[in-house]
Amino acid sequence: MRQLSEHDASFLYADTIHANSNVTFVQIYDQSTVPGGTLRFKAILAHIESRLHRSPIFRSKLLRVPLELDDPYWVEDEYFDLEYHVRHIALPKPGDWRQFCIQASRIHARALDLHRPLWEIYVIEGLDSITDLPAGSFALLTKIHHAAIDVESRNEFIEVLHDTTRKPPKPEPAEPWFPERAPGPIELLCRASVNAMFAPWRLMGPFARTAPAMMTFARDVLRPEHHRAATRFNAVVSPHRVFDTRRFLREEFERIRGLAAGATVNDAVLAVCSGGLRRYLDAHAELPQAELAAVVPLGIGAKHGPGAPSRCIPFGTHVADPTERLAWIQRQTSAAQAVATARGMPLPACTITHVPGPPAPVYLYGARMTYFSAILPIADGMGLVFAVTDYDGRIVVSPTSCRELMPDPQAFTQCVRDSFQQYLALARKMRAAKPVPGRPKRAAPPRGADAAGVLGAAPPRSARPRASAADRRSPAARTVRSAAKPLPVAKGGRRRSTAPRR
């Protein structure tokens, strides 16, 4: 038995009937790498069962202290049932990306049973109509409560269930498991009394949990002018979630950061997200003239590592020029007092969270993981969150909101993609104009133009990219693609960007 930290317990206390603290990891696998070419649900279930002993998360459930006088404890679930937690479904035909996002959003929105271990895994088949996915690909949706995992440091579920080699190791012999006895109410109250003696501030827990709402109410009364910078996402959220994603090459973010001296990959990601939010609000005639801020755990880039503390920083939505916006963000993130301004902190419009992926390609019982992203929790007053995942040379930007605040998630992610394309075009232009020492000045050869496809493994080199249904409906998307330069001819044949396209 172990007690939750105050930080982890805060995610439990933050749960409401319309906004829970679920985190859902979205993983897609290429089944062709499995020995024999097929991975059945029964094998996945047996694989998960063989790894249960590697982490206490799997079999631990919550035990609350009477009257909430202390933080809850993790205790082993004596009635643990693996088949309750691992489920098998398939998308209805045609099984396209939009259907997958809707299904993932619905699963993410449903609250977990707080009387059982706080996780579920959904094995999803029927993805054959998603562009650029190898035939037979399947997905894993791993839903877990934020109180049980720290998404900004290490993903224990990924580490436990995956291997770094294609050939699955021999299954480990099952270890005998005997659940420990959970303490009764009297013992829990005695523990709470002892904890209160050594940490009397724990008795202020109920007040501390209501303090943020009281401060927000006071700010609304005393500083009504801050509403002038509010966006549609600074509102009460509904129980219905929406999720979409765009995938980019990390090396192209490296190019983008070169547009501003001293900028990091982290700054480039913030600039792309800022530009996407600016485009979306402007398209709806809702862009405030005042600057907006983002709550940012700075986890991408050389200056900051995973688990870095969160900061609320202005992130340049009021700056029209993209290069100036990147330079603005670089100054904010590098300043020692980034959050201190004479006029006070701008109103946060969103959260941008780094969810680190595995440092190298990983396999689930031989199936290679080709895509990794996350759906993160939102809350009242913060109805937009970007999950930024980094895996296998690609950075995936995945916004989460609710259906009422963002009824058009595809339009929002298209704005993010257009923001990226604008930055990438400027980076290529700057690179082409920069002379190479010792060589005559000439234009740099063009590279893969579109690094912003949705997901899936890289298509075969001989495959010709196809426009998705969303692109065929969107003249703006076709215009962006028609402006892309042809790919260079590499030795041994043609080469194109490995990033999938939409």
Q: Which CATH C-level class of the domain at 241-360 and 382-436 and 449-482 is it?
A: Alpha Beta
Poorly predicted segments:
300-307, 336-343, 442-502
Nearest-integer average pLDDT? 80
The gross shape turns out to be globular
Radius of gyration: 24 Å
The count of β-strands is 18
Q: Mind describing the biggest β-sheet?
A: 7 strands, mixed
Tell me what portion of residues adopts beta-strand conformation: 15-25%
Question: How many helices in DSSP terms?
Answer: 13
Identify the CATH architecture of the domain at 241-360 and 382-436 and 449-482. 2-Layer Sandwich
For the terminal residues, how far apart are their CA atoms? 48 Å
CATH fold node name of the domain at 241-360 and 382-436 and 449-482? Chloramphenicol Acetyltransferase
Q: What percentage of residues falls in helices of 4 or more residues?
A: 25-40%
Structural class: alpha+beta
Condensed summary:
The protein is an alpha+beta fold. The protein has helices spanning 6-13, 41-50, 82-85, 97-109, 156-161, 185-198, 205-222, 250-257, 265-283, 322-334, 409-433, 469-473, 475-482, and strands at 2-3, 22-30, 60-63, 73-76, 86-90, 119-125, 138-145, 241-243, 246-249, 293-297, 310-314, 348-356, 363-364, 367-375, 385-391, 394-402, 489-490, 493-494.
